Amino acid sequence: MTTILERVKTALGPEMAGPGLAFVAVVLVFGIASPQFLSAATFGSVAFQLPELGLLTLAMLLPILTGGLNLAITFTANIAGLTVAWVLSENGGVDAGVGILIVGCLLAVLVGAASGVVMGLVIAFTRAHPILVSLSMMIFLRGLGEFLTRGGDISGFPAFVGPIGHGSIAGIPVPLIVFIVCVLGWHVLLGRTKLGFNTYMIGSNLEATRYSGINTRKAIVLVYTLSGVMCAAAGIIMLARFNSVRIGHGESYLLITVLACFLGGVNPFGGFGRVIPVFVALVVLQLLSSGLNLIGANQHLATAVWGILLVGVMILRWLASKIRISIIRKGS
Amino acid sequence: MRSLIRTHATEFSLLAVIVVISTVLSFATANFFSLGNAFDLLNISAVNIIFAVGLLAVLIAGGIDISFAVAASVVQYCAAIVLGWIGGGGWISGLLIAGSLGVLLGCVNAFLIHRFRIISIVATISTFNIYFGLLMFFTRGVSIYDLPDWLTDRVILFEHEMPDGTWIEITLPVLVMAVCVVATWLLITRTTTGRQLYAFGDNPEGARRFGINIGAMQFIAFGWLGLMAGIGGLIQAHYAQEVVPNALYGRELDVLAAVVLGGARLGGGKGSVLGCVLGVLLISITQNGLNLMGVSPFAFKMIVGAIILIAITISNTRIERLLAFVGEKGAGR
How many CB pairs under 8 A join A and B? Predict the structure, then answer.
């Protein structure tokens, strides 16, 4: 019995405790407070809202694991969405074919990757702080987007774009499928590949990693490139969901993605953290805002509660470490 | 002189960049190089500089704060309500109320960080969401336009008509900014507390073993930023003549970029008031110059972002390293 528990514990990892507890607490509290909470409707709304924030959080996760931060994610997503919109409207607008959309998406991924490559190169070769580099990239991309769109919306896409944002396959929303595929991709990337291993090593100790003969610069550039690619995916999903592109869509998600990563037990200095706990943390955040909606609060209160939740989890972690230390002292 | 340049490399390179940009702009536009425009620049950047020197104290102490701009909005709103209750008030009571509310909000951050050992970026991202969420929830996003007269009246401390008919004026925000800048400079360079802040930011464990009260350091740094955020918030309300709950949303990242551009190190122990002021001014001067050149306002941010990106790339790259990079590339082929 204990060995099974131990095995589950090691499989889930220490990061799982915070989001896991929060998940149980949220489901219990809202399940009691509102009879409609534990229904298909709630989970349907969570399933549709989760992917946008989720994909952006995945984009944020990799840089945080290397000890950095990518503050340009939301505007990279906007610019990628803009690329798709531009390709579509240049090639027939409402009458554009599926092929055009695929070309647009490929270009969007390239654009996202390009923004990541630039950031990665500057960070890797000048050792400038990632916060500053990505911040200036964010200001640049926002300006570029506002310059191109003059602050307006771009809409008028062919009818088949809609189902990517709203449709379901076998009862599962399409955005959710995209998101889960991306989560699994990131999980495999971080757990099974050389780049994933290097990412953790760089986050723990950059210099030691470099002295071990790992090309840290290449790894950092790749990490930011992949982050940019994930932003492009988020941008395409956002375009399909809103059926329009506006610079500033999802801007408020920026700091929420950082919050979700920390809630998921990712170390703010990098080196530690896993995808699945972050996924659970995201589900908790969405459940919270859906539950608060049900009892009549608005998104702003949900934002405040998200902040309180993070503080609460952090205080619990602090308490747990205190208790652990006192147990060790008593034992010896 | 040479050692001065070496110890203040960031400040000098920033100054050089500002001089280059200003020279280009004064040739490109007719009105840039005038005293009137210089004073306009000061009036415009006053609030950001107040925020920036406050943030500097936190960065020196090894922390980071995302929540201060939203805290300033909370202070604005609460101060406007409290001033309504007490029936008007004046500049003294206004600054006292705003300052103490700001210190209170800053101390919430310090308390979380010190008492529960939460890392500052995590703690302040939480408080950012808490402050902003609660502010928008309780105010429902409604702005206050009905402010006391003393707060909305422009206070001109000094004005002078230039021979060409333009006016130079120093307004109250500039005075407050100057006081804040000098006070911060005194705090971090002329007091024991200031030296302790640098020591704490550079090596917290070393500072603790040296007998520095690290709890006090957190409260002083975040309290100082809170004070500056409170004052800046009130001044911003004075400047804009209204209180809009989400007016300062997003300002934190702009100020952070300016301060770090000015040589403050994320991670602590480094930074100067001069650099921080120059960082803010560089961005203001660029925007102002672009405006005078008749560039579309939509392109401002794009150009400013590109300039910051280029500035950090250059300031972080020494010539040797660039050469090494070229050599490596050659060897790779």
Answer: 156
